[in-house]
Write a sequence for this structure.
């Protein structure tokens, strides 16, 4: 097998839907992927299983969704995620490194995609939305980081209240929002928009108009972002 064929197979395996929450329960084959990333050979964008969408299919981010990064950024990374998905937790440090390395060039936009087989994902999505309603992007990302930084996050009502406290939220309002599932309509809109794009598992990404599913390492995310920047004339 040629090196190009080998790297294509390894990268494709890392991005297949069956390797994320929604299509299977096992983790991506990082052992198989590592030689391709660490071999010293360049990762070619053309070898990545990324789909370019027609511009008319790309949702335009607005204030309904929390975002992080420069509003004027040339690259917008839209992420469909689930607070209970371990693959979404895996990609959390990748997103942080992306925003640090591409400061001013990349903006991250959150979309809820709570998978139905996760017992607490819908409740956690409501919790995140309530954080956003109470304190805007600062409170949302504080809540988000607290959840994804925890080694074993407890996502029932009591556990979520603990994360809300770390984000400085009003506890009475927070508990009421969870009890009434106040933000279900907003979550349903995000879910429907993702499904229309082809999201079936998490995490899923749109890097400008490049769509893919799976928790990938920074080295591969960088290749995709660099292509989007090049397309934008940067």
């Amino acid at each position: 097998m040629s090196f190009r064929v080998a790297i294509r197979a390894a990268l494709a395996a890392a991005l297949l839907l069956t390797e994320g929450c929604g299509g299977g329960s096992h983790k991506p084959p990082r052992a198989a992927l590592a030689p391709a990333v660490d071999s010293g050979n360049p990762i070619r964008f053309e070898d990545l299983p990324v789909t370019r969408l027609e511009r008319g299919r790309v949702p335009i981010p607005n204030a309904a969704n929390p975002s992080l990064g420069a509003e004027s950024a040339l690259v917008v990374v839209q992420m469909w995620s689930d607070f209970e998905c371990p693959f979404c937790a895996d990609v959390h440090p990748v997103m942080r490194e992306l925003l640090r390395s591409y400061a001013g060039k990349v903006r991250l936009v959150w979309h809820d995609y709570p998978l139905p087989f996760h017992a607490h994902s819908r409740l956690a999505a409501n919790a995140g939305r309530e954080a956003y309603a109470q304190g805007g992007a600062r409170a949302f990302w504080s809540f988000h980081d607290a959840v994804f930084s925890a080694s074993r996050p407890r996502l029932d009502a009591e556990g979520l209240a603990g994360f809300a406290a770390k984000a400085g939220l009003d506890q009475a309002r927070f508990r009421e929002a969870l009890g009434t599932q106040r933000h279900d309509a907003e979550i349903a809109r995000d879910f429907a928009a993702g499904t229309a794009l082809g999201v079936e598992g998490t995490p899923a990404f749109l890097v400008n108009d490049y769509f893919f599913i799976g928790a990938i390492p920074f080295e591969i995310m960088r290749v995709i972002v660099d292509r989007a920047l090049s397309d934008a004339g940067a």
Notes: The first helix runs from residue 3 to 15.
